[in-house]
Each structure stands twice: as structure tokens, then as C-alpha cells.
Design brief:
Layout: H1 2-18, H2 27-45, E1 49-60, E2 70-71, H3 97-107, H4 121-127, H5 135-170, H6 177-190, H7 200-209, E3 212-223, E4 225-226, H8 229-244, E5 261-262
Antiparallel strand pairs: 1-3, 2-3, 4-5
Helix pairs in contact: 3-5, 5-6
């Protein structure tokens, strides 16, 4: 066990030198961390060979203290999931979504006493001087309604993509940007949402909405060599006997052919 003590001593020295002196972990969390470290160490110690594999996957950014190991992919773009780069230009060349909504609300306002519209067309033109013809109101109404339907579809689609993301995390499967886009496109087809585009802008806004970031993970992959000849012999005989019943193999078992198997 001298080697084990040597390794733990080196680990203690490096931890003391490179890690912060204080920790916010509770006693229970410390025990869980110790168990996890021991399991990794035991797997390496009892293996024939091992190697490390680095991979970047998407994960939930659950804490403000995770800046060092969780890369935030958000930027200064709009939080609107329907945002496109040309959306900052007014729709219909001169009218914004907010302007149209306010104009429609004012146009449809009802006087509770008379049951009729509270404002005349002349009053509407005076308050919204850029509206030069009453036909604009019908165009505004159609646009706002379609915008609302599209917003609902995008929300439903985003929920579906996020559910897939959570299931993949529960199964410890790595998730990448292309997976989110692929799930979004597949769901849009099932919804007949033909105008949906899984653009980089949609992806950034989706990750911002659900607080998703990129995280680097390290996996330790170990290999063990089976060297117990009795176990090999028993396993080989059992395999042959089982398959003989199905006429799968038709040869005699030769113990001299046994070699150490790797798995």
C-alpha cells in the first residue's frame, strides 16, 4: 500500500498548493466528494490501462460561482425568441410592433356608457399622425395576430427542445449546439411550423432563456484485462453450450485456444 500512500500524499500537497484554503461545502457534500474521488481512484488503480477524454457539453448554469468552468454563450442580442437581425428596422418600413399595438388598443377602445368606440377616426389620426389611412388598422391587426401565433409556437417548440435537453442530461449524454437545432427543426416539422429557422440567433436566445452554458468535462476511461483462466474457461463453455442449442456453433471447445480477453 506504499504506492497508495504516496499518491494520496502527492494529491494532498497539490490540493494544498493550488486550491483555495476555504470551501463552502457542507460536511455531507465533503463526504460525497470524497466518495466520488475514491471511486475514480479505485477505477484507475484496479485497471490495466486508462486514459482521459475531454469533451465540451451544454449544461445548466446553476450558480454565479461557476464562471470559471462554465462558458456563458449569451451576448447583447435581443431576449425576444423571435428576434432577427433585421427586426430592429420598423415593420412596414415605418411602424414598429409597439406602435401598432398601441394604435390598435386605442382604435378598439370602447366607451362603457355608449358601447361604441371611444375615439373617432379623426382623433386616432391626431394621436397617431403617421397613420394616414384607416386601412392600416386592418393590416396592423393581421400582423399582430400572426406575430402572437408565431410567438406561441416558438414557446411550445422551445419547451420541447428543453425537455429533450433535460432527458439527455439525466442519461449523462453530452449535448451540443447542433443537437438543440436538430430537435428544434424536428419539432417544427411535427407542428407544421414551416417558417421556423434554427438560426444562431434563435440558439443564443434559447440558451439565454434557459440559462444554458457550455461546460468542459473530463472522463476517465479504464480498461481491465481478464486473467483468471478458470473464469475464461467457464465463460467459454457456457457460451458454446448455449449456442449449440440453437445450432449456432458446431466446433469442439479447445482450452488451449484460450487467451486473456480484454474488455
Amino acid at each position: 500500500m506504499a504506492e497508495v500512500h504516496r499518491i494520496t500524499q502527492l494529491l494532498r500537497e497539490r490540493a494544498s498548493k493550488n486550491l483555495p484554503a476555504q470551501s463552502t461545502l457542507t460536511a455531507l457534500q465533503e463526504e460525497e466528494l470524497a466518495d466520488q474521488l475514491f471511486n475514480v481512484f479505485e477505477s484507475i488503480w484496479t485497471s490495466t490501462t486508462y486514459n482521459e477524454e475531454d469533451e465540451t457539453t451544454l449544461d445548466n448554469n446553476t450558480s454565479d460561482n461557476e464562471i470559471d468552468d462554465c462558458k456563458d454563450d449569451s451576448d447583447e442580442r435581443s431576449d425576444d425568441p423571435d428576434y432577427k437581425e433585421d427586426d430592429e428596422k420598423p415593420v412596414f418600413e415605418s411602424f414598429t410592433m409597439s406602435y401598432m399595438t398601441r394604435a390598435l388598443d386605442y382604435y378598439h377602445e370602447i366607451n362603457p356608457k355608449t358601447g361604441k368606440r371611444s375615439h373617432s377616426w379623426k382623433s386616432i389620426q391626431y394621436k397617431f399622425r403617421r397613420i394616414t389611412h384607416q386601412s392600416y388598422m386592418a393590416r396592423f391587426r393581421d400582423y399582430v395576430e400572426q406575430k402572437g401565433i408565431k410567438k406561441q409556437k416558438i414557446d411550445i417548440l422551445a419547451d420541447h427542445v428543453y425537455n429533450n435537453f433535460e432527458r439527455a442530461r439525466d442519461l449523462l449524454c453530452p449535448v451540443h449546439d447542433m443537437d438543440l437545432k436538430r430537435w428544434g427543426i424536428r419539432e417544427s416539422r411535427s407542428m407544421s411550423f414551416h417558417n421556423f429557422v434554427a438560426s444562431d440567433t434563435w440558439l443564443l436566445n434559447f440558451k439565454h432563456k434557459y440559462n444554458i452554458c457550455s461546460r468542459k468535462i473530463i472522463k476517465v476511461v479504464t480498461k481491465r484485462e481478464l486473467i483468471n483462466e478458470d473464469d475464461i474457461r467457464s465463460s467459454a463453455e457456457e457460451f458454446i453450450n448455449e449456442n449449440k442449442r440453437d445450432n449456432f456453433c458446431d466446433y469442439a471447445f479447445d482450452p488451449n485456444r484460450i487467451k486473456a480477453n480484454k474488455f
